[in-house]
Amino acid sequence: MRAVRSSVAGRLTRKGAGDDTVAVVRSLTRANRGGRSRRARAGATDIEIPRAAWNRLFACTAAAALLQLDGTLITVALPSVASSLHVSSASTSVLLGAYFGAYALLLFPGGALVDRLGARRVALAGLCLFAIGAAAGAVASSLGLLVATRVLQGAGAGLVSPAALAGAVSGFPPERRGSALGIWGASAGASNLVGPLLGGLLTVGFGWRANWWALVPLALLAAWAIVRHVPSVVHSDTAERGPVVLNAVVQSATLIAALTFAVMIGCFYLAAQYLQRVAGYSALGASSVLVLVALLVGAAAPVAGRLSDRYGERRPAALGFLAAGAGLAALGLPGVSLQSASTMPLLIPVGLGLGMLFVPTSRAALNATPLASHGRTSGALSMGRLAGAAIGAELAGVALRGGPTASGVHTAVLVAAGACFLVGLPACLRLGSHGEATAALQEAC
Q1: Which domain holds residue 81?
Q2: What are the pLDDT tens digits along the chain (445 aa)?
Q3: Concatenated DSSP letters for 99-152?
Q4: Rounded Cα distance, 43 and 31, in Å
Q5: Which residues, 6 or more positions from 14, have their beta carbon under 8 angstroms from its beta carbon?
Q6: Which of 371, 100, 34 is nearest to 257 (CA)?
Q7: What confidence tens digit (pLDDT) does each residue in 326-344 have?
Q8: Helices and strands, number each (H, E), in the chain
Q9: 366 domain residue, yes or no
Q10: Rounded to 5 degrees, what angle do the CA atoms 295, 296, 301 make?
Q11: How many domains does the chain have?
Q12: Measured at the alpha carbon of residue 92, what is the angle toward residues 281 and 82, in degrees to the nearest 5?
């Protein structure tokens, strides 16, 4: 221990002050917490977080929530879009795929720009593109033009996403990032809750174009919050760029993020189509059924954050896949109704399970990379989420090619359950095992 203190004193002498001191202390903390004693875990919750860090978190969370809101808001309006533009319901899935595809393509460049220019500039540029795309989509007269505007929106989102996540956690030490990300995940659940309701109200009351118009003032409001609360540069040490970003932990976290969003977006798309076209629900009625899942996702995320800070990321992630997989497997049984009140209890483990997966993946990946690389790490995570969302939407569209039927939905849900068990659970075992990443961080410090 004396040798360690001497080493730290030498580093402090060479580094000099301020942010470098914080970097060295964090490296020492990581190097000496291998046992992860219960007292150390409990002490992490006592770390005082300044108000500026919380304000930054809420501003960045609002920007990210807008991107999540877009997906659920537009999904509810797709049957009306198909009717208005005289295209098939299955073909409207390209609107989700175009958005998520462009979103994914810009994530890695966006993450690199965040690490170079800071979260504030990149987020503001992305929000401007997003707002312009939404306004253009509101006046589009054909499916092709609407797809083009969705590409523009997706490009803006690809810049906003890594900037928002990197900025959100930049004021929190690694031991408290679970709590911060719990709020982040709760905002995603709230967006999933508000999105279907708002989409249903706007579609029924004003037509599908109102969904696009609503995104414009929301984007401007998010930009105002970024200007007010996010500093020009969110990382403190540009010398930390050395370690490899895509280490084993980040790769596993990205895979889990992709699977989570493939299941969630795919199931939302299937439910919206089936309930409106087969069960005879209105857009508002169909969206109200999805509210329960969205509410549970938002409620589970803060719990997952506290569990991750206390026990690490593996346990809450595995619990999430077990719960979601069990609920989906029950819904996929041939005799189970998909449109009655008896369906509601089966949605509870699905919503809770999906909500448990947001925080552990982000926490594990961000804690396995240095602060100055969080833009690229966030880009990798968002790439996984958006690629998964695009795949989920396209697979749901394939499942509906012959028309929405109960048997087709049952089959698709069973496939999703199998993915949770066979892909998700094994990937959870690699979360938190970041010895190589920790050594890289010590070297960088």
Answers
A1: 53-444
A2: 444 444 434 443 333 433 433 343 344 344 344 434 333 444 445 567 778 888 899 999 999 889 888 877 888 888 888 888 888 777 787 888 788 788 888 888 998 899 888 889 999 999 999 999 999 999 988 888 999 999 999 999 999 988 998 888 888 888 888 888 888 778 876 776 688 778 888 888 898 899 999 999 999 999 999 999 988 765 544 444 444 567 888 889 999 999 998 988 888 788 777 777 777 777 667 766 777 777 888 888 888 888 888 888 899 999 999 999 999 998 888 877 777 666 778 888 988 998 899 889 989 988 888 887 888 888 888 788 878 877 888 888 887 777 777 777 888 888 889 999 999 999 988 886 444 334 333 433 3
A3: HHHHHHHTHHHHHHHHHHH-HHHHHHHHHHHHHHHHHHHHT--SHHHHHHHHHH
A4: 17
A5: none
A6: 100
A7: 999 988 888 777 776 667 7
A8: 19, 0
A9: yes
A10: 105
A11: 1
A12: 60
DSSP 3-14: HHHHHHHHHHHH
Distances (CA, A) of 90 to 81, 94, 390, 430: 11, 8, 14, 37
Tokens for 177?
Answer: 């990032």
CA distances 329 to 70, 244, 346, Å, are: 28, 38, 9
Angle between helices 314-331 and 358-367 (to 10 degrees): 150
The b-or-e profile of 245-282 (16+ CB within 10 A means b, else e) is: bebbbbebbbbbbbbbbbbbbbbbbbbbbbbbbebebe
Q: What does the chain come to in residues?
A: 445
Report the CATH number at residue 393: 1.20.1250.20
The three-class DSSP label of residue 410 is: helix
Tell me if 323 is assigned to some domain. Answer: yes
Amino acid at residue number 95: L
Backbone angles phi, psi at 142, to 5 degrees: -145, 165
Task: Record the tokens describing residue 422, joined without a space.
Answer: 């066979």
Burial class (CB in 10 A: 0-12, 13-18, 19+), 17: exposed
Q: What is the pTM of this model?
A: 0.69
Q: Which residue has the tokens 């970097």?
A: 23
Stretch (H or E) spanning 301: helix 283-311
Domain-embedded: residue 20: no
| 254, 108 contact by CB (below 8 A) | no
Count other C-beta atoms under 10 Å from residue 414's C-beta: 16
201 lies in some domain: yes
